[in-house]
Amino acid sequence: MSNQNQNIRFLNSLKIGKKQVKYCRFKKLGIKFVDYKDPDFLLKFVNEQGKILPRRLTGNSLKFQRKVAQAVKRARHLALMPYVTDLLK
């Protein structure tokens, strides 16, 4: 009986219920300032339509999510990033 239990294979992975641990990349890398003049970095926090991704998806802390949002808005205002687009990435 124990030999049969060792040969059990599952179609799905067993990691279904486990959540991926999210972290704030700013705190981990020690970044203190979000530069609005760097649109390539800010594209990581924007989806294909140009919308700012929420904290629950990016894993940013509240402090840095506010800084990212402000930097994206400033970059849009200076035409470094588009407000709306079809396929940004």
Description:
By secondary structure, the chain is mainly alpha-helical. Helix content is 38%, strand content 0%. It has five helices and no strands. The longest helix has 16 residues, at 62-77. The mean pLDDT is 86.
Mean pLDDT: 86
Count up the helices: 5
Beginning-to-end CA distance, first to last residue = 53 Å
Poorly predicted runs: none
Q: Give the C-alpha Rg.
A: 20 Å
Q: Tell me the strand percentage band.
A: under 5%
N-to-C order of helices and strands = HHHHH
Which word captures the global form? elongated
Q: Work out the number of β strands.
A: 0
Q: What kind of sheet is the major sheet? A: none
Mind sketching the topology for me?
Elements: H1 2-6, H2 25-29, H3 39-42, H4 55-58, H5 62-77
Main traits of this protein?
single chain, 89 residues, mainly alpha
Briefly summarize what is shown.
This protein has 89 residues and is an all-alpha fold. It has five helices and no strands.
